[in-house]
Amino acid sequence: MKALALQEFENPSVVSFNKGVDLSERARELQRVATAGLSNGEALTALGKALANEISFVIARHPDTSIVEMLNLVFRGIRKEAYLTTTPR
């Protein structure tokens, strides 16, 4: 069960395809709503708290998944997205 749950998190296109959701659009909307009227530091803190809450919910639904495994997956995804959005193409 754990391997399947972690595999789902490593491949966001599976979620996007299955639910017909454009994850980039959803992320832009989340960022706009969550950071409105906040400084950069406050925005990062608010988004970090929201992400931490979501990680807790995922671990509660998949109790065989360790917090270390989940954080490693999330950090890899954040690092990849940050490089993609800050590196000129």
Please characterize this protein's 3D structure.
There is one protein chain. The protein contains 5 helices and no strands. With 89 residues, the protein is an all-alpha fold. The chain is globular.
Count of helical regions: 5
**Can you summarize the main beta sheet?**
none
Number of strand segments: 0
How much of the sequence lies in strands comes to under 5%
- Low-confidence regions: 1-6, 13-18
State the separation between the terminal residues, measured CA to CA.
Answer: 38 Å
Quick summary:
The chain is mainly α. It is built from 5 helices and no strands.
Keywords, please?
89 residues, mainly alpha, globular
Secondary structure elements and pairings:
Elements: H1 2-10, H2 12-19, H3 23-35, H4 40-61, H5 67-86
